[in-house]
């Protein structure tokens, strides 16, 4: 498997607090990588380094390197808007804009200069189909995004992220606010999307990581304890701390 994200000796500080410690890893493209570990161990922090969302938190300092497709994303030449177009993100709470379903999906493409109605219609349909939502909303695209269920809103947020044709989709506990059926739908969707996109997901749910991902990373106190194929990590972990965590002895 080719890697798309390469992290070398990454340290991240929130002021004095050392939140990520000497992280080294390669994330394979067109696969799902899951980040697991107890609350506060740095999963979301690492995820946010991939699209420089940490830039928005004042007092954050980074040492080391994060490269995407060979480019150091923290170098001065990198345009953060372009980076965020390539690296989409979906959050724990569905956060559609207070606009119609159509306008939510068309938002990114419009921002990037697409105004042709036919082209936008095409993008909206393709993105909603990719997010497995088209059939449920195709007859009321003009309705408010708030008129659909939470699970549908989360798939709408995925469609909105896909509309700008990213390479990577980051999911930060994207199902933890959803009911089991909506969760299952998003998990199935992630499985379909992984053939076309690289997905990195933070999850509190070990069963979800085991069900959905190909690679799993276990974090503890800002460090990567173990990183391996999901099946191996859950069936035959090499580190005692991983074993203790996955068997429910802490966290
Ligand atoms: N903006 C911030 N300023 C200061 N400290 C922060 C900030 N964001 C996170 N932290 C701290 O950094 C550590 C890692 O947080 P992070 O949110 O990455 O953990 P996490 O593993 O994703 O946790 P959870 O599973 O609870 O979301 C925690 O100790 C947290 O308190």
Automatic annotation (TrEMBL):
An annotated Gene Ontology molecular function: ATP hydrolysis activity
SUPFAM superfamilies: P-loop containing nucleoside triphosphate hydrolases
SMART domains (alphabetical): AAA (SM00382)
GO terms, biological process: phosphate ion transmembrane transport
Keyword check for Manganese: no
Membrane topology: Peripheral membrane protein
GO cellular-component term (any): plasma membrane
InterPro entries the record matches: AAA+_ATPase, ABC_transporter-like_ATP-bd, ABC_transporter-like_CS, P-loop_NTPase, PstB-like
Protein name: Phosphate ABC transporter ATP-binding protein
Organism annotation: Cohnella herbarum
Lineage, opening ranks: Bacteria, Bacillati, Bacillota, Bacilli, Bacillales
